[in-house]
Amino acid sequence: MPFQSIRDPAQARLLLLTLILFLSYLCVGMALPVVPVFVTRQLGLDNVWAGLGVGIAFLATILTRGYAGGLADRRGARLAAARGLGFYVAGALTSLGAGLLTPAPWTAFAILLAGRLLLGLGESLVAVGVIAWGIGLVGPARSGRVLALIGAAIYGALALGGPVGLVLLDRFGFSGAMAASAVLPCLGLVAIARLPGVATVPAAARPSFWSVIGRIWPHGAIVCLQGIGFAAIGSFFTLYFLDRGWGYAGLGLTAFGAGFVLVRLLLGHLPDRIGGLPVATGSLAVEALGQALIWSAPGPLTALAGAFLTGLGCSMIFPSMGREVVRLVAPHLRGTALGGFSAFQDLAYGLTGPLAGLLADRAGYGRVFLIGAGAAAAGLVIALALRRARSMVFE
Questions:
Q1: Rounded distance, CA 82 to CA 192, Å?
Q2: 3-class secondary structure for the chain?
Q3: How far lies 138's CA from each of 125, 146, 306, 317, in Å?
């Protein structure tokens, strides 16, 4: 059943948490186009260093998911989220310092990297903390809906953050954009100060992070494989159109986002109603079709239709698999499991760009989307295997 009335205190708190997550991810989205421009045009460094400036934050996020999940489990999701917002502020202010040192480009770049590492740590803590907090508020039975809502906030913030960041860069410079990035998490800190946390679950023993990963890795692998399609559209759709001489090159993410949001709004309840694996199975088939359509497109409208289908397919896979992960672990391991699970998606986003770029240089941009279709098909095979294994258990 969809969420109850907003007058339900738990639902109102969940919406506030979602807003806090949206504000924090605006900081991530604002930096994505701003950092490369700063590194190449103001510091005078080449694209390799610009890519490092962007990518190192994702590396920090991947490497700290286990820490974030353990902190949420042991000391509470509220502390994890608050600490993450603090790291956001520290990262933005450190990056602001880099903007003041442009006459010394390598010093500025080193300071920028430090700021990006702090932001990546903050992203890890806030995301895991808010997800664990939200599920604790409304209960694991609605975890799929919680993850769908939170995912919509993340993708919406990333989509909005890029244009906002470029406007701030144009009007106030890099340091001004980073100053705005420092203010947004402060608003989140003020908001959560009055929110009650959820109790931690005491446990005599906690298995290692890698032991928990061993339980959930097939579900994480599905999320990783589906993320390749989104990353391919984000990184190469525009270049693919330009290489073909097609118009509407800037509409790829718009088409993807339209499909993504449409499914989240209309079908966000499905994982809780019929189960995560059935939803993921259908979603992966749609994503594979969308990626194949982009690869084989004879013209721009067909490719845009493929991007829309990819958005339809990608939309519910993370919440569907997240719901399954929540069911696989004990309550006192929920944060750790969700942290490890989220790292699989980070891995897809972090690796797809450089690896697909090498493929595009050698085989053309179209092959990138063929790989995306193959990845979604591989995810579909894993999902079908999990469904078969589950049906055998219940026979």
A1: 8
A2: CCCCCCCCHHHHHHHHHHHHHHHHHHHHHHHHHHHHHHHHHHCCCCHHHHHHHHHHHHHHHHHHHHHHHHHHHHHCHHHHHHHHHHHHHHHHHHHHHHHCCCCCHHHHHHHHHHHHHHHHHHHHHHHHHHHHHHHHHHCHHHHHHHHHHHHHHHHHHHHHHHHHHHHHHHHHHHHHHHHHHHHHHHHHHHHHCCCCCCCCCCCCCCCCHHHHHHHHHHHHHHHHHHHHHHHHHHHHHHHHHHHHCCCCHHHHHHHHHHHHHHHHHHHCCHHHHHCHHHHHHHHHHHHHHHHHHHHHCCCHHHHHHHHHHHHHHHCCHHHHHHHHHHHHCCHHHHHHHHHHHHHHHHHHHHHHHHHHHHHHHHHCCHHHHHHHHHHHHHHHHHHHHHHHHHHHHHC
A3: 20, 8, 36, 21
Query: Using one digit for the tens of pLDDT, what is the confidence trace for 54-85?
Result: 778 888 888 898 888 888 888 888 999 999 99
User: Among 10-14, 40-44, 300-304, where is mean pLDDT lowest?
Assistant: 10-14
pTM over 0.85: no
Residue with tokens 């599920």: 135
Q: Are 164 and 30 in contact (CB under 8 A)?
A: yes
Do residues 60 and 120 lie in contact, with contact meaning Cβ atoms separated by under 8 Å?
yes
Alpha carbons 366 and 359: distance in angstroms, whole number: 10
Spatial CB neighbours of 241, under 8 Å, sequence gap ≥ 6: 247, 248, 249, 252, 300, 303
pLDDT, tens digit, 9 for 90 and up, residues 238-284? 778 888 888 887 777 778 888 888 888 888 888 888 888 999 999 99
- Non-local (6+) Cβ contacts of 225 within 8 A are 284, 348, 375, 376, 378, 379, 382
